[in-house]
């Protein structure tokens, strides 16, 4: 037991600081992905909700692709695809160089693609929960289409979509572990290194699992708070 | 379309002409992009059908596909078996049963599948002397068994929640009606409650199968040559990007086919509920 505590302590003898750095990378990857995924997902939901059939079809193709591919494969497609694409593009321009894509950025792009396709479904079902009268009321007040969307519909939409988006955030947090495969020093990779050096794999992967659990618990309490905040208008009614 | 209004017998006014609004232009541009990339993808893959890469690796891809099917099938079945006692314990009135079951479900749903797989595959090494003593070391040394073990435990947690939710969804009146007819509790559960619960659970079960197919790609990280594993091996040997494109097409075909077939099955089985 004492040995385990020494291994986990901070400083030269322990691996605590390495693992803490891994946690930081994991959390910052998830937080950096979130805004892109949300905005892209909202735009795709708008496209799916529009009355224009071609726009709907285009958005549906997008979600079919990124919900059907394994996340790991999407990650490799982005990581190697961008690398090869950039190299080919530069070759056409006459530069012959080797390019390595930053694994953090590649992970961010891949996770945002996957997150946005799931988030668009969450937003779409929230759109279905907003009665037509809200739009009509907005137009009757002389608001433009854009104003109706941002001032009337969006605030209600967020409240309706929050539970589903909260689940997606928890999934995103877990999916960041895949980026360790393309070399990002996240929680999983750092604990893997610690496990290999100290020959204590169960201890370090167990700790990694527990840290993921703690992150999930913190997120759940945070999400519950945000949900209560979003519903504060309901209480007085 | 031109139905007359019965009161005034006036024909319906013609619908307004469809103008080229911004959304319509955007939609057509995006569709044009999809069509161009789809056609070029088909052209690219078509021109590579006879290439040395495909000649060399397509049997490997078939093998990998079969391994993926095996992993997914076996884990789903084992998980389904394991999920029943977990769901029962989770719904139990006694806290000695319900708390551990809750902890189990929370752990396996709250941590990444990759971390669980690593914990079992690499973590087993810590207990090598103990496992050798009970004769289980051969099981945990083999990556295939470890993957099956990790995936079964993981999907059991998800399936237990699906099952529990579906059983709770069946109304109390069904239990009471069966009790009024003098049917015993176990018979009520298997003949009255479970059929109705499984009907509700069809869609989440379908989603779980698809999640499992996608999640099984993780097995490739611990040296299993499933579809993803064969793809990675082919890429690392040839440095040909089409390795990943073929895999993407294969996974999309598998998932889309399964989704459509499952929708058909669901529509067929729930046709008595359609109004």
Please provide a written account of the structure.
The complex is a heterodimer of chains A (237) and B (275). With 237 residues, chain A is mainly α. Chain A has one domain (8-231): Orthogonal Bundle (MetI-like fold). Chain A is built from ten helices and no strands. In chain A, helix 2 crosses helix 5 (103-128), helix 2 runs antiparallel to helix 8 (187-198) and helix 6 (132-140) crosses helix 7. The N and C termini of chain A lie far apart (55 Å). Chain B starts with 21 loop residues before the first helix and ends in a 6-residue tail after the last helix. The model of chain B has no long low-confidence stretch (mean pLDDT 90). Chains A and B meet through helix 3, helix 4, helix 7, helix 8 and helix 9 of A and helix 1, helix 3, helix 4, helix 9 and helix 10 of B.
Question: Any chance you could write out the topology, listing elements then pairs?
Answer:
The complex is a heterodimer of chains A (237) and B (275).
Chain A: H1 2-8, H2 16-49, H3 53-68, H4 71-93, H5 103-128, H6 132-140, H7 145-175, H8 187-198, H9 201-230, H10 232-236
Helix pairs in contact in A: 2-3, 2-5, 2-8, 3-5, 4-5, 5-7, 6-7, 7-9, 8-9
Chain B: H1 22-47, H2 52-90, H3 95-110, H4 113-121, H5 128-134, H6 137-141, H7 143-169, H8 172-180, H9 185-215, H10 227-238, H11 242-269
Helix pairs in contact in B: 2-3, 2-7, 2-10, 3-7, 4-7, 7-9, 8-9, 9-11, 10-11
Descriptive tags:
heterodimer; A: 237 residues; mainly alpha; MetI-like fold; B: 275 residues; 11 helices; 76% helix; 0% strand
Largest interface: A-B, 49 and 49 residues
Our estimate of the beta-strand percent of chain A is under 5%
Radius of gyration of chain A: 22 Å
Spans where pLDDT lies below 50 across 5 or more residues of chain B:
none
The CATH level-2 architecture of chain B is identified as Orthogonal Bundle
What's the name of the CATH homologous superfamily of chain A? Answer: MetI-like
User: How many discrete domains of chain A?
Assistant: 1
The appropriate CATH architecture of chain A is Orthogonal Bundle
Q: Tell me the strand percentage band of chain B.
A: under 5%
Shape of chain A: flat
Major pleated sheet of chain A: none
DSSP E strands of chain A, number? 0
Distance N terminus to C terminus of chain A? 55 Å
Gross morphology of chain B is flat
CATH fold type of chain B: MetI-like fold
Assembly status: heterodimer
Q: Count every helix of chain B, treating DSSP H or I runs of 4 or more residues as helices.
A: 11
Secondary-structure element series of chain A = HHHHHHHHHH
Q: N-to-C terminal Cα separation of chain B, in Å?
A: 26 Å
What count of structural domains of chain B? 1
């Amino acid at each position: 037991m004492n040995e385990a505590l020494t291994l986990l302590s901070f400083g030269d003898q322990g691996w605590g600081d390495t693992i803490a750095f891994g946690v930081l990378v994991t959390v910052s990857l998830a937080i950096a992905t979130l805004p892109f995924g949300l905005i892209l997902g909202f735009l795709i939901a708008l496209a799916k909700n529009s009355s224009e059939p071609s726009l709907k079809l285009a958005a549906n193709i997008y979600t079919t692709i990124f919900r059907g591919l394994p996340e790991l494969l999407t990650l490799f497609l982005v990581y190697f695809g961008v690398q090869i694409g950039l190299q080919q593009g530069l070759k056409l321009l006459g530069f012959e160089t080797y390019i390595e894509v930053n694994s953090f950025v590649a992970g961010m792009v891949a996770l945002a693609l996957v997150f946005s396709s799931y988030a668009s479904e969450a937003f779409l079902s929230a759109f279905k929960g907003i009665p037509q009268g809200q739009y009509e009321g907005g137009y009757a007040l002389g608001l433009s289409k854009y104003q109706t969307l941002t001032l009337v519909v969006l605030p209600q939409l967020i409240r309706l979509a929050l539970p589903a988006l909260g689940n997606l955030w928890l999934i995103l947090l877990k999916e960041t572990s895949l980026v360790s495969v393309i070399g990002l020093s996240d929680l999983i990779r750092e604990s893997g290194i610690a496990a290999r050096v100290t020959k204590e794999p169960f201890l370090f992967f167990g700790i990694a699992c527990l840290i993921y659990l703690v992150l999930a618990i913190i997120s759940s309490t945070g999400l519950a708070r945000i949900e209560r905040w979003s519903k504060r208008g309901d209480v007085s009614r | 379309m031109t139905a007359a209004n019965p009161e005034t017998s006036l024909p319906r006014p013609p619908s307004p002409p469809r103008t080229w609004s911004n959304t319509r232009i955007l939609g057509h541009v995006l569709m044009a992009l999809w069509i161009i990339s789809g056609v070029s993808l088909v052209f690219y893959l078509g021109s590579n059908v006879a290439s040395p890469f495909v000649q060399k690796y397509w049997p490997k891809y078939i093998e990998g596909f079969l391994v993926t099917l095996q992993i997914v099938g076996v884990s789903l079945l084992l998980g389904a078996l394991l999920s029943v006692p977990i769901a029962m314990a989770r719904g139990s009135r006694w806290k000695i049963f319900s708390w551990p079951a809750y902890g189990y479900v929370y752990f396996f749903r709250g941590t990444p599948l990759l971390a669980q797989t690593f914990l079992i595959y690499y973590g087993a090494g810590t207990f090598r002397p103990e496992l050798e003593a009970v004769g289980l070391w051969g099981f945990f040394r083999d990556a295939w068994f470890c993957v099956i073990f990790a995936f079964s435990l993981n999907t059991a947690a998800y399936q237990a929640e699906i099952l529990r939710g579906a059983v709770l969804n069946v109304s109390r009146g069904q239990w009471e009606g069966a009790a009024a007819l003098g049917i015993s509790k176990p018979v009520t559960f298997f003949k009255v409650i479970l059929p109705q619960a499984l009907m509700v659970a069809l869609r989440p079960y379908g989603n779980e199968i698809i999640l499992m197919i996608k999640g099984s790609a993780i097995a490739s990280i611990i040296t299993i040559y499933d579809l993803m594993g064969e793809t990675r091996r082919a890429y690392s040997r040839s440095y040909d990007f089409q390795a990943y494109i073929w895999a993407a097409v294969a996974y999309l075909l598998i998932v889309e086919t399964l989704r459509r077939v499952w929708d058909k099955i669901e529509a067929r089985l729930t046709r008595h509920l359609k109004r």
